[in-house]
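Good day; I would like, with your permission, to put a structural problem before you. What I wish to show you is a protein chain and, alongside it, a tokenised description of its three-dimensional fold. Please examine both parts with care and let me know of anything in them that strikes you as inconsistent. Thank you for your consideration; the sequence and its tokens are set out here:

***
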Amino acid sequence: MKETALRSNLLAFVALVVASSLAAQSPKANLYTRLEITTSFTTVILNSNIRVDGDSGAGTDIDAESDLGLASSKLEPRFAVRWRPGHRHELEFGYQFARRSAEHVIDRDITFGDSTFHAGANVGTKLNSDMAFFVYRYAFVAKPRTQVGLAVGLGALFLNSALDALGSGGQVQFSQSDNVTGPVGSIGAYGRFLSGDRWSWEADARYVKVNVDRFDARVGEGGGAVRYAASSRMLIEGGYGLTAIKVDIAKTRNNGPGSRSGMLKYSLQNVRLGVVFIL
């Protein structure tokens, strides 16, 4: 009887040790990781209206998708790095690619800068609108399973646009281009929450209206994500983000690249699936 009891206690102890070991190896979601690097494939959903004025007057308000035949969605990469220097503080840096080109026969006259493209013309269009972003977050609530606080976003929209009048055989007859780097920013709130041991979710919303140099801008940003801890060093992330921008651009005194006045109404939605590496 004593040997049986001893054997049972020994087996129970071994089972407890094994269970504890397996539990220790099981990955768990954590809202306070020190350093993360995220790579994502995103379906960017774009809606762009742009006007580039010339020296002689205002240009045409162009709907990039319907007037120029640019795709409204495209698969693009996105990269982000999050670093937590303290328990309540976090810095995030990232870059979203958004680059499109198309050939299209336009059905109305379009003035872009100092050039007019007439209805029926075959036009080659390039519109790159990459975004670099930075977000500072401060957690007013910093509990193990809940994090809520202030979010301040800064960034830049790199707008590179060009229209080419194409002749037979795709030869460029004449071209008009403009490059503008516009600052963007927003302020708001964010929240992160654990759901079970492996799941977490997060959301944020920010807005600002600001005048910087010759840019009069209104910016709204927001989104959310769900994360699954696949291992102690890797998470799977599915997310959604929205950036909506309305910018009026005043003319500069010089005539160099990016000196023209104009207007940009731009929205970028991203539906993403990515991998988060915890370092």
Notes: The helical segments are 2-25.
